[in-house]
Specification:
Helix content: 40-55%
GO molecular function: ATP binding; ATP hydrolysis activity
Keywords: ATP-binding, Nucleotide-binding
Number of helices: 14
Family: Belongs to the MoxR family.
Protein name: MoxR family ATPase
Pfam families: AAA_3, AAA_lid_2
Largest sheet: 5 strands, parallel
Length: about 350
């Protein structure tokens, strides 16, 4: 039996909901095809990034340089019809360089007044390139924007455009001169997406497509308004009791003080909070719709466990000394779900 959980707009007629979900699935298939003409061999990365946007969240893209992270964000902005901007994070970047600042202006009549000049955060899709290279003070400037979709300057709140998403990139190597993201900010990212090397076939196709006379260009396939409607639909997708139980078992089992696994209690310093369960609820719904299904399954929970959990938990010193990695711990938790 399927029950509706956490519905945003009340109950909906099943036939109408099914028709809307099928229409969205078809549209998302066209979106993936449009992205695939430009991005090669990163199907899982594209899928997880789209899941993040459909869930109304932000994503942290982690990978070595040259894997197309910047290209992916630029392509998403065009395909989804979003106003996209990019900020290159550096150690000398200031908060005002992101959120904006007030300037004193004098009119022709001699009257002086402050005017707010919005920063690049006032967009629908913000790429925070190499976010860990900026100082903690600058990193924290994004916290309010990511959580509340507004920024405050000189005591005045300025709302951000809707929709608003942050896709941040992080280089896992060359850590000298970087500032690790604080746990509070990491928790604001719905998914941490690992960007790996493409396989040989994809790399061959990329070489042929990108070194010729003309590169393939992304084409608009959705609009910002359609993305907002899709996000509202995702929140109306029914979630079964088995999926809800799997999410709770997975998230609560990753907490050292409440886990039923001795290895988890022994190896973890801290675990995920309720925001991880919320992220899983939304992400499993989005994944189901992308696959053409009306309701998520436990398989969706297992598939999204690592990108949801790995940036929301940490190993203790003894576990790191023994060579344990978070993937091993998450694997044990997934094995409990079958």
């Amino acid at each position: 039996m399927i029950e509706v959980a956490d519905t945003a707009m009340g109950s909906s007629d099943p036939a109408t909901l099914l028709a809307e979900a099928e229409a969205l699935g078809d549209r998302l298939q066209r979106v993936r095809e449009a992205i695939g003409r430009v991005i090669f061999g990163q199907q899982e990365v594209v899928e997880q990034t789209l899941i993040t946007l459909l869930s109304g969240g932000h994503a942290l893209l982690v990978g070595v340089p040259g894997l197309g992270k910047t290209k992916l964000v630029e392509t998403l902005g065009t395909v989804l019809g979003l106003d996209a901007k990019r900020v290159q994070f550096t150690p000398d970047l200031m908060p005002a360089d992101i959120i904006g600042s007030e300037v004193l202006e004098e009119s022709e009549a001699g009257k002086r007044a402050f005017r707010f000049l919005p920063g690049p955060v006032f967009c629908q899709l913000l790429m925070a390139d190499e976010i860990n290279r900026a100082s903690p003070r600058t990193q924290s400037a994004l916290l309010q924007a990511m959580q509340e979709h507004r920024v405050a300057v000189a005591g005045v709140a300025h709302p951000l455009p809707i929709p608003f998403h942050v896709l941040a990139t992080q280089n896992p190597i060359e850590q000298e001169g970087t500032y690790p993201l604080p746990e509070a900010q990491l928790d604001r990212f719905l998914l941490e997406v690992e960007v790996g090397y493409p396989d040989e076939a994809a790399e061959r196709a990329m070489l042929l497509a990108t070194t010729g006379a003309r590169d393939a260009k992304p084409v608009p396939t959705m609009t910002g308004a359609e993305l907002i409607a899709a996000q509202a639909l995702i929140r109306r997708i029914p979630v079964g009791e088995s999926v809800l139980d799997a999410i709770l078992r997975l998230v609560r089992g990753a907490r050292p003080d409440s886990s039923g696994l001795e290895a988890v209690r022994r190896q973890l310093a801290w675990g995920p909070g309720p925001r991880a369960a919320q992220a899983l609820m939304l992400a499993t719904r989005a994944r189901a719709v992308m696959d053409g299904r009306l309701a998520p399954s436990v398989e969706d929970v297992l598939a999204l466990a690592e990108p949801v959990l790995r940036h929301r938990m940490a190993l203790n010193f003894s576990a790191r000394a023994d060579g344990v990695v978070l993937g091993d711990v998450i694997g044990m938790l997934k094995a409990q779900l079958g």
